[in-house]
Write a structure and sequence with these properties.
This protein has nine helices and no strands. It is mainly α.
Length: 193
């Protein structure tokens, strides 16, 4: 988040709108009003709505990356990947509209696979890539293209979460968590050596 106090207030107000009503509810005018500044004043901090949405998404990625890097690094690579998957799931279920903005909404400036990922631009996927790389280096996993594996793991995780949040999976939250874990474990075991 930007160091400027007004820019921080803008992002916090945007986040409240996002959490309450979703990204479509965010307008420069509404956020300015929530902060108590004029609609024109907000443009001193964010040039347009897309820049503000990117700031909100970036804050979400920083938040999630912080959780991922604090995850215990003990145990097998499978156990570590399972923990990372649990963190993704928990963060998404606690912040469904932020998850949607981060991973599902088209945004100019959003990171793109493969080029942005292969040069280490994803604060969240980098953590997963490190564990996958370790698994290949210690022969737990078959040697393969690290970023393809990471993106497939993300697609499985995000796809299941999206379907659950979208009401396409008719299960209780606890049943969905168990299904998510089983799916994740099946995939991880599929890349074992």
């Amino acid at each position: 988040m930007r160091e400027n106090p007004t820019a921080k207030k803008i992002v916090l107000a945007g986040r409240r709108l996002l959490d309450g009503e979703g990204s479509d509810a965010i307008s420069m005018r509404r956020v300015a009003k929530a902060v108590g500044i004029t609609p024109m004043a907000i443009y001193r901090h964010y040039s347009d709505r897309n820049e503000l949405l990117n700031a909100l998404a970036d804050e979400g990625f920083e938040e999630l990356a912080g959780l991922l890097v604090r995850a215990p690094s003990s145990g097998s690579v499978e156990e570590r990947l399972m923990r990372l998957g649990e963190i993704y799931l928990q963060h998404a279920l606690e912040n469904p509209r932020l998850f949607e903005l981060m991973f599902l909404k088209p945004r100019p400036g959003a990171r793109r696979y493969p080029e942005d990922f292969e040069i280490g631009q994803s604060p969240t996927a980098n953590v997963v890539a490190e564990v996958v790389r370790e698994g290949m280096d210690d022969n737990s996993f078959r040697r393969d293209k690290v970023w393809e594996i990471v993106f497939e793991i993300g697609a499985l995780s995000h796809g299941l979460i999206m379907l659950f949040l979208g009401g396409r999976i008719r299960m209780s939250a606890s049943s969905f968590r168990a299904y998510y874990r089983r799916s994740f474990r099946r995939y991880i075991r599929g890349i074992h050596k």
